[in-house]
Amino acid sequence: MTPTTAVTMLFKRIVVTDSYPVDLTLTDREKTTNELMNTVEKFPVNKINSKEEALNWLEEDE
């Protein structure tokens, strides 16, 4: 099947059913992954520009 044929079939199906013939809802796993990614993005980030800054940051917890 060529891409043109596939697209034509898709468009015909959309017209006949008056809807998109593919389920676009997220799975539970995708929802959980998105929630995790959104949570992680809120974590504070320290920008380290030098070896000295890295060593200082590593020694902070000691």
Fraction of helical residues: 55-70%
Number of helices: 3
Largest sheet: none
Order of helices and strands: HHH
- Rg from Cα: 24 Å
Overall number of strands? 0
How would you classify the helix and strand content by structural class? Answer: mainly alpha
The rough form would be described as: elongated
Mean pLDDT: 93
- Strand fraction equals under 5%
**Distance from first to last alpha carbon:** 64 Å
Low-confidence stretches: none
Number of domains: 1
Organism: Companilactobacillus pabuli
InterPro entries: Arc_rbn_hlx_hlx
GO biological process, one term: regulation of DNA-templated transcription
Protein name: Type II toxin-antitoxin system RelB/DinJ family antitoxin
